[in-house]
Amino acid sequence: MALALSGPETGLDLTGFRDAVEDFLADFLDRKAPPAGNGGSPDLAAPLRQFLDAGGKRIRPILAFVGWHAAGATGDPRTVVHLAASLELFHVFALIHDDVMDSSALRRGRPTVHRALARAHQGDDSGVSAAAAARFGKGAAILIGDLAMVWSDELLLESDANPDQLAALWLVLHAMRSEIVLGQYLDLQATGDASPDVSRALRIGRYKTAKYTVERPLHLGAIAAGADQHLLDRLSVFALPLGEAFQLRDDLLGVFGDPAVTGKSALEDLRDGKATVLTALALQAATPAQRRALTDWLGDPHLTDEQAAVARHIIVATGAPAQVEEVIATRFRTAMNALDDGRLPCAARRALRDIADAVTRRTT
Amino acid sequence: MALALSGPETGLDLTGFRDAVEDFLADFLDRKAPPAGNGGSPDLAAPLRQFLDAGGKRIRPILAFVGWHAAGATGDPRTVVHLAASLELFHVFALIHDDVMDSSALRRGRPTVHRALARAHQGDDSGVSAAAAARFGKGAAILIGDLAMVWSDELLLESDANPDQLAALWLVLHAMRSEIVLGQYLDLQATGDASPDVSRALRIGRYKTAKYTVERPLHLGAIAAGADQHLLDRLSVFALPLGEAFQLRDDLLGVFGDPAVTGKSALEDLRDGKATVLTALALQAATPAQRRALTDWLGDPHLTDEQAAVARHIIVATGAPAQVEEVIATRFRTAMNALDDGRLPCAARRALRDIADAVTRRTT
Predict the structure, then answer these.
(1) CA within 20 to 30 Å of A36's CA: A222, A231, B210, B325, which one?
(2) What is the ipTM of this complex?
(3) Is A160 in the B-facing interface, judged by CB distances under 8 Å?
(4) What is residue B68's three-state secondary structure?
């Protein structure tokens, strides 16, 4: 994603912060490698290192950093690095499990963790069947994901945050974790059930993305600088519409994105029958014939490239993508207005504006 | 399990403690139910309540309680209830994910969480295919398991433990969590790969059971009463051999147990080709013909009841079950000797002896 990360115009050194988080995570995972001569313990940190090396936007760490600045950037900056790294490792957990649940083949342009582990397990041993290797891959990926969650706790608790600060962070972290699980659950429940229900799709996005990806990271960073509830509420007024716009952009990219740029398949969302605002609006505006075709195809695991191309054509013909673009623009403006009213420190406000801009226009 | 839970002979009110933990968990999960008129939020706590209601030995909570007594039972007893409930909820997480990984059908005599969720998802809607329902069930069970882990953190942090106590508990909890993931990973890696390697099987059991089920719960309870490293080490000398015996009993029950009593299939371990000390010893002592049959059958997902009966017969003929019984008896004696040397408070010692007795002789 072309996140305009730093430069004199923002004032905040987002690139520097991101690098610090990367280094910190790399060190942490290096410490988790089994010592030499350990009797053949598998290196369970290796898949996590590889996953992080493959890229990612680091949007949650960056928002935590900006949230910290929004609240005055007081206190030990290392606490924010711990917090940001912990958020990213938690996100790795969520993505690895998400890929297992969706049986996704690609993530960040590389084989997903369960696919890579399945392949490694099979290796050159013809005695391991493809089915057994796939089963191993999924089980092992569930465990590696679990470990990422365990370690994201550990990493935060290694920080020098004082007990009161930690208690305040945990309160919001627990809310965030329950919210993302609920969002994922609602998503899973709706998957394969194509429906014109826009409010259901919006609700999924609110939990899965608006709160988890934007609001909570900002809150957590702000709490690390001792923010009060009033500031947290003001940040929410910015974060929630931006987060919805983020999800809507994601929905568009999932169907119309270039796999070479997104690193994800452009067929999967259609094949899974993901319940998005995009498909809900398309079903609402479709002619009876279009609607029949979409209902048949959305959620068909054997959807061909040709059928997908026709489905995309129909979706465009309904006007749904243009409607979604309009909603994104509206949400973006709402978020911008919140910034203007927000009386946030100038540097934080600029950074949030740049991030909002990048997040809503991105192509990956 | 016929855990001799209380009675004047032990001195510790294990039953009372277990009931307190049950009540506490029930209250906690009730609080997690969505409020009435919530717009149709799914009750993600319900599968966890049902899982806990289906039974279980509560061995980890009980050991935490005994560990607390072993260290003098000082400090706020409610902290131990929080800790024990947190351990049990973490265990629920581990079992739900374990059942997904193993594709198990039954747990505690009821359909596993992923099976129950798949069935509920399909409901009376003939539009949902069996494959789609199964996919939903596994995905949803992964999420419900994740939530159990999130909530096990939350529950512990709601306790009144002071920051120093919490920091000491977290240190061991993190070790425990990494250990169980490693144990599960080693187990998964070896599954389907029948081998006479006893030391590999022992290593799996050490991480998966001896440390996770016995040693760490005792340590954690002891830490809640301010135990020093010296006491923790003394508890390990008891816990590790007992934990190994526990795993060995589990291995025997997995193949020879009565499903009506264990609540689990007696075919699954054979069909999965679990790498246990039992099968390793059987392969070591088998004649070439027996070994060929076992190698063919262990890990065959289509193993019939008849073949399983023959496999059990072969395993008995190799003398492996008797050898495993001997190892169990040896480990039991080692654990008992540790108790005698341990200078632990008398009531804790008695409780540990009763638990060791029940754990190594159990039929479920």
Answers:
(1) B210
(2) 0.92
(3) no
(4) helix
